[in-house]
Amino acid sequence: MEENLKAEIRAIRIVHIGLIAGAVFFILITLFMNKTVGAFIGENDIDLDKRSLILLVVNILSLVSIVAGIMMFKKKVNTISENQPLSEKLVIFREAMIVRAATIEAPAFLFTVGYMLFGCPTFLFEAVVSCLLLIYFYPFNFRLTKELKHDFTDLDG
């Protein structure tokens, strides 16, 4: 495979790692802050019903965001034909991957802010699940092969 194609694949992976790292670092900073100074809104400052309502709204927004991102990704990737050159496939894939990853990363940030505000472990758990979903969609060779509809040997290296 040409060096510029290898560089393009490396760039796609670096962008994805950056999105994962940003969410993970924000979670770690929030964990540290909550352990040292506590949540911004204490347990006694807001009743359980309001906190539950906020959790429900955040979950609905996140679910809509993630599903929409995955659907947009699939729609964009389905425009790739098997006969296209790999360089063109990578451009389309990069655009679609950034949309999918961003629509998964946004809920991770939203859940992390929820944990920062309320100290509710449910928010933290859901932020971690969002990060795991980002890791699941990391562009490994097998995922690139499947989603780009291109022979694995061309992606090896």
Topology record:
Blueprint: H1 3-36, H2 48-77, H3 86-118, H4 121-136, H5 141-148, H6 152-155
Record keyword descriptors for this entry:
elongated; 157 residues; 0% strand; 6 helices; mainly alpha
Instruction: Please give the number of β-strands.
Output: 0
Please state the overall shape, judged from the principal axes of the Cα atoms: elongated
Radius of gyration from the CA trace?
19 Å
| Major sheet size, sense and barrel closure | none
Low-confidence stretches: none
Structural class label: mainly alpha
Distance between the termini: 8 Å
SSE succession: HHHHHH
Helix content: over 70%
Number of separate domains: 1
Mean pLDDT: 88
Range of strand content:
under 5%
Secondary structure tally, helices: 6
Can you give a write-up of this model?
With 157 residues, the chain is mainly alpha-helical. It has one domain. It is 80% helix and 0% strand. The protein has 6 helices and no strands. Helix 1 (3-36) packs parallel to helix 3 (86-118), helix 1 packs antiparallel against helix 4 (121-136) and helix 3 (86-118) packs antiparallel against helix 4. The longest helix is centred in the first third of the chain and has 34 residues, at 3-36. The chain is elongated.
